[in-house]
């Protein structure tokens, strides 16, 4: 697989894909999903008044005096609901009306002394301030309706999604078929072959947009789900009016692609409670629900491979994961992701047959063919504004790759061209790839010491002693 150049990725279309869509007919008569309905009362939010009251007091605590418009924007709730909560706060003498204008929205509230004390205590216990959460049931319903299992792709979809990459056709077909099974995928091969880049690009294959809540509430606790580093909101031009969320506690997003690398530990796969803030963060695979979860560099994590793989057995089997709150309350959420594992190890080296059986596909991504390597080289040189004669490419392959037993990996052209372009800028040379520039870049890239009797470029080249490039 060849990395070419960075491009903005967009989904093929941004309409949620309901189960019935796979059967070719509309799903008439089903209830309107909760995320698509604008709540008009406290009861319609599904939340307890005590939770809403605490969120309102904390929002007011930041300003001491606050308008209804600010509270509405902070809690992401309609003015009718916020006003109903504020009425309760006024009745309990936690808030007082500091100003009321001609408009229903022209209202300013002020915390009373009792309200200020209550808000300070509430903030100390849980500092979450922002959009009101949604219920666990509403979240489960949204995930089920937008399940990644409803997605399917065709050969044309895959070809269009990877049109800017140089990639073998048989690998493209294997990727498309793997997605349609919606079972876990393992991508393995040598370092630098493009496994991680390929895995991250898989997200463009997933059709549809998904509603993501800012937070959910379970047993009175708040779990933050929306992550701006993971979830990319769809703008209005990408979604039809009929599909936009009316409840602003939800954000309509592209299907997420979440990556965990060598830093992954078992504790990161559970709810993360911050004693200082007083609320929970959802683990990465929960943030990836309705999308792709990539475990990169499997085998390089701080935790042993066997322990990490055992953690995935139940979610891969049952498509659910279990979590436990500090209070001991246990609950389950869907494990609705397309899991992708990327590793430099051979599948047999993982030594876990139970895990390997649960993988739908295992795809090898290795060195490129000479023609594919040439195509990547030429594209990469053009990306850096460099011209390259055929003789320079022949020198790279024959005198550097082949003599050094270095495979034609996807990452090498870009890494070498970056060094050559840097040398061109430094020396003020013409933007052209020369054999000398490639040799210097190669030696720098592999950490080779130049031999005192290095022959001129174009002649047979040998590395000194044990400093040959390793594949």
Automatic annotation (TrEMBL):
The keyword Transcription does not apply. Keywords: ATP-binding, Nucleotide-binding. Pfam families: Mg_chelatase (PF01078). Residues 1-15 have a biased composition (Basic and acidic residues). SMART domains: AAA. The keyword ATP-binding applies. This is ATP-binding protein. Residues 1-32, 451-471 are annotated as: Disordered. Residues 181-369 form the AAA+ ATPase domain. One of its GO terms (molecular function) is ATP binding. SUPFAM superfamilies: P-loop containing nucleoside triphosphate hydrolases.
